[in-house]
Fold this protein.
Amino acid sequence: MRFVIEIYHMIDDVVKKIIKKEEQRQSETINLIASENYISGAVKEAVGSVFTNKYSEGYPGKRYYPGNEFVDEMEKLAAERALKLFDIEDKNWFVNVQPYSGSPANFAVYSALLEKEDVALGMSLASGGHLTHGHKVSDSGKYFNFVQYGLDNNGRIDFVQIEKLATEHSPKLIVAGASAYSRTIDFEKFAEIAKKHSALLMADIAHVAGLVAGGVHPSPFAHCDIVTTTTHKTLRGPRGAMILSKGKELADKIDKAVFPGLQGGPHNNTTAGIAVALGEALNPEFKEYAENVVKNAKMLAQELSNKGYDIVSGGTDNHLLLIDLQNKNISGAEAEKLLEKNGITANRNTVPGDPRGPMDPSGIRMGTPAITTRGMGEEEMSLVAELIDKALMNNDVSDEVKNLAIKFPV
């Protein structure tokens, strides 16, 4: 028995050391990955709570295990806070907070609403869409009949093409949303096309949910039938997701698709963390945070543009910017490695009309949610742009990056 206990202590020490190394990495680097952020201590505490011990297949009041009265209370609280945060007073909207992440949430909607032969429209990956918007390597593109739309010559969503595709294919569902699109998404225009062609409209706001909540990006809820979102990224919560749907008929179908269709019991500790994060986002300070995220992204885009970098669509309206590196004679993968070597994390990304493959594309994506959480502002964006430029010219700026990062503790 003593041997077993000693082995457990050894394992704990090994894990602890790895965690400490990750803490140091996060502390000493500048995180420009658009889909990442930092949770608060309160969210961390909730995620590490005793709710992780409980199984609760089913939904509030209809569980397959006993002892779920407080799980029910927590799940209802998270749903109520989601409706309040997004300013949804219409009692006809329902919330499912059980999806494990954004990809399963999207797949649950498709499973609930589409038959294999039904057509759906989604934004192509090369244009800034997400894999789960019907890309052929994703199960969303393998199991469902997606037709992809893209961008116009100005790098904006091509509504002329969407209208043409809707006329040609009569889609049952249109997906509005992106993972690498830096401009405002016009949900009203999407709704006009969807209504004209009798299609359901789904908004995937995984990236901009915090901006919607903060009032710096238009809300989809007046125009859409379904809205999916992750709960991290700009919302600053744990790694989870939500599906919001209008009408009990849609909600019932989606609930059944999530459980028992795609998942077993929800991760109740994550639900607790979501409830905390949504509560934090209801504070007035969160609106200021969302505004600063956009200000920082605009400033970073402008500073990099001044240094000769080609910003896709000419700038940004949200939390991210996409840089086409072709005029710098460097690939996205090379840029990613050079930046990481210097303590700056940003991910390679395809750009519209990219002549290169997805594993080594022509672009790189950057975002400001994480560095804004750490307290950096527009003044620091000039320095960050300078460090990026120097790093991409193969200069060693690792010490400068570290010195800047530690001034703004995680």
